[in-house]
Automatic annotation (TrEMBL):
Membrane topology category: Multi-pass membrane protein
Claim: Kinase is one of the keywords in the record: no
Source superkingdom: Bacteria
Gene Ontology CC terms: plasma membrane
Family: Belongs to the polysaccharide synthase family.
PANTHER family in the record: LIPOPOLYSACCHARIDE BIOSYNTHESIS PROTEIN WZXC (PTHR30250:SF10), PST FAMILY PREDICTED COLANIC ACID TRANSPORTER (PTHR30250)
Protein name: Oligosaccharide flippase family protein
InterPro entries per record: Poly_Biosynth_Transport
Principal subcellular localisation of the protein: membrane
Transmembrane recorded as keyword: yes
Organism: Paraburkholderia acidisoli
Assigned keywords, A-Z: Cell membrane, Membrane, Transmembrane, Transmembrane helix
Length: 425
């Protein structure tokens, strides 16, 4: 069998269907639209309304992480693309999961109201319940497009859906819909994206219930599920604590500072991982040495760029909040200065996780998340006692750093294991 040959330079220049240019364009447009929507709505509604919407989105995040199948990543990483019948089984599994999550969230709405002080706004959680259902109904052809690195098509889908979400969300906020505007915009954007996956991508899976034929994905996807559950704990526990103990207004301030830092730092790496994961996997199928060389290049560039951005944002934090969000949000500035460090480490972790999963070591990412949980368990109580809410934020920094250290060690071990074989060749 002839070995796969890939270009020595990892990024395709120009505007070919598989060029990294489309991933970068998608990042700029989609995250820019999200930033505009979130910041405009935040300025219109204030911390309390944002906090209410955040509780509903928190419920969705918890339910989706606890039920993550890992099938999308397994389809992208697998040595061969799925057959049409296998895509039908993937769709059946994901659609059923989305329906069950939606029903669970509707049933748990009264509990969320009681625990997070929603003031009877049960409809917020009920509207948010439609998000996982709409995502589950999307065609698995989207994952195949990612696998085959059809980034031009993916960018068109994501930008179109993001534009609809932004326009409708801001319009509803201006019309006086309050926190519902944020959720309804997201819901309509997800519905539009799901429709596009069926009408513009191939192959279309058969629309019938089918459960068999995807057992070979389980070995890989189980680690994705485990990692999702652990990441849920590390990423959402702070919001649960703040929302339950301090109420929606304080949660809104916490969420805005975190979200702004995420948009400026971590979202770029998360979007880039959509390019890196299938690209690392393709290079690894052609030879472990090529994938390792590509990884080192991206990690070095990311580390240097993130360090510069963190320094800039910490100095510019107060005028940034004052100009963009208004005086009501200034108490969130100290948290933002910590969160930019957190999100920079998280961005590096995205690169590390993309590589480890691409070479088949999804277990290492899960273990890294477990280590992060352990670090949080050890550090949060004393940090909270001495430094309050900022102590929780610094504990998150410590946890993220320990997870990154573990993944770096696993990458070095993986490189050492493959070095002799590459030398012999």
């Amino acid at each position: 069998m002839r070995a796969m040959r890939l270009p020595a330079w990892p990024v395709k220049a120009g505007f070919g269907p598989g060029a990294a240019t489309w991933v970068l364009l998608q990042q700029v447009c989609v995250r820019g639209l999200v930033a505009v929507k979130f910041l405009v709505i935040g300025r219109i509604l204030g911390p309390s309304a944002i906090g209410l919407a955040s509780v509903a989105l928190l419920a969705v995040a918890i339910a989706e992480a606890l039920s993550d199948t890992g099938l999308a990543q397994a389809v992208i990483q697998g040595p061969v693309p799925p057959t049409r019948d296998q895509t039908g089984a993937v769709w059946t599994t994901l659609a059923t999961r989305g329906l069950l999550i939606a029903l669970l969230l509707v049933a748990c709405a009264p509990l969320m109201d009681a625990q997070f002080h929603l003031g009877g706004a049960l409809a917020l959680v009920q509207i948010a319940a439609l998000l996982p259902l709409l995502r589950g109904l999307a065609s698995p052809a989207y994952f195949i497009a990612q696998r085959e690195r059809h980034f031009q098509h993916i960018a068109a889908l994501e930008i179109s859906a993001g534009a609809i979400d932004c326009i409708i969300g801001i319009g509803l906020a201006l019309a006086g819909m309050g926190p519902y505007s944020l959720l309804i915009g997201m819901m309509i954007g997800e519905a539009f994206k799901s429709v596009l996956t069926w009408t513009t991508l191939a192959p279309r899976p058969p629309i019938r219930l089918r459960w068999s034929g995807i057992g070979h994905y389980v070995g890989f996807s189980r680690w994705i599920w485990a990692s999702s559950v652990i990441i849920l704990i590390t990423n959402q526990f702070d919001k649960v604590v703040v929302g339950k103990l301090l109420g929606p207004t304080q949660l809104g301030a916490w969420q805005m500072s975190s979200k702004l830092a995420q948009m400026l730092l971590a979202d770029a790496a998360l979007a880039m991982s959509q390019y890196l994961f299938p690209t690392f996997a393709a290079h690894h199928r052609g030879g472990a040495h090529a994938a390792a060389r590509l990884f080192r290049l991206y990690l070095g560039v990311a580390a240097l760029g993130l360090a510069a951005v963190v320094i800039l944002l910490r100095f510019a934090a107060e005028p940034l909040f004052s100009i963009v969000l208004g005086a009501a949000w200034l108490p969130a500035v100290p948290l933002f200065r910590i969160f930019v460090i957190n999100m920079a480490i998280s961005a590096l972790n995205s690169v590390l996780a993309s590589y480890l999963r691409a070479v088949g070591d999804a277990r290492a990412v899960t273990v890294a998340s477990l280590i992060q949980v352990g670090a949080l368990i050890v550090s949060v109580p004393p940090a909270t006692h001495f430094y309050g809410v900022t102590g929780i934020a610094w504990s998150m920094t410590f946890g993220l750093a320990t997870g990154a250290a573990w993944m770096l060690w696993r990458v070095s071990r993986h490189g050492a294991a493959h070095a002799p074989a590459e030398t012999v060749e």
